[in-house]
Specification:
This protein is α/β, with parallel strands linked by helices. It is 58% helix and 11% strand. It contains ten helices and five strands, in the order βαβαβαβαβαααααα.
Length: 209
């Protein structure tokens, strides 16, 4: 066993989920050391004593919800890595968590290999400066893609719409006809249930797509 095993706190009020998660993660690394806490307020009280390297934090918990707990912990313990793990999959919730300091956001039905990879990346000392922005941008696409059936091409066009480029400019960048770009925009708006170009731009900006 390592001299300094990685201490991971599972903050979730569902006992069976927490126990199952611990059992899975122990298969990856026997030197992971776990503590399970079922309330947000108890997590805040225990954090200084526990001093974990990583917290897997649920959003909906009694005592204090995960988002408020995240904000409090990150203000006082910037070195602790926090992965939000939740059933909530809307872009607003994801971006709120990331804005308040979460290092990553995962859905509770995440693939076990993806969970392992995310934990390894987040615990990498270079993660914050080198990988964080790219990792979470890619992961946001994956979640939005599942929720709205947005394709990679549509996501690419969304990024250009976000910086204010016209259909002509986007067509030149992607070597596609204006008609094709217009069709993609219509499909994006239909999938997002938006009616006007202004609503599309507002949705992109508000959800930080």
């Amino acid at each position: 066993m390592k001299n300094n095993p990685t201490h991971i706190v599972i903050a979730d009020d569902h006992q069976l989920f927490a126990e199952g998660l611990i059992a899975l993660l122990k298969q990856f690394d026997e030197d992971f050391f776990f503590t399970h806490i079922h309330r947000g307020d108890l997590l805040i009280k225990a954090i200084k004593k526990l001093n974990p390297q990583l917290i897997l934090l649920d959003i909906k918990m009694p005592g204090l919800d995960g988002i408020n707990a995240l904000e409090i912990i990150k203000k006082e313990n910037t070195g602790i890595r926090i992965i939000m793990i939740s059933t909530f999959s809307d872009a607003e919730t994801i971006n709120t968590c990331l804005a308040k300091g979460a290092d990553a956001f995962l859905l509770k039905n995440v693939d076990v290999k993806a969970l392992k990879k995310t934990i390894e990346m987040v615990l990498d000392p270079k993660f914050v400066n080198k990988y964080k922005e790219t990792f979470n941008k890619n992961h946001l696409f994956e979640i939005i893609s599942m929720q709205y059936k947005i394709t990679k091409r549509e996501w690419e066009i969304i990024q250009y719409i976000k910086i204010g480029e016209t259909n002509k400019q986007i067509s030149n960048r992607l070597f596609l006809s204006i008609f094709t770009i217009e069709t993609h925009r219509k499909n994006i708006m239909q999938k997002l249930k938006l009616k006007t170009p202004a609503e599309l731009v507002r949705f992109i900006l508000e959800n930080n797509l």
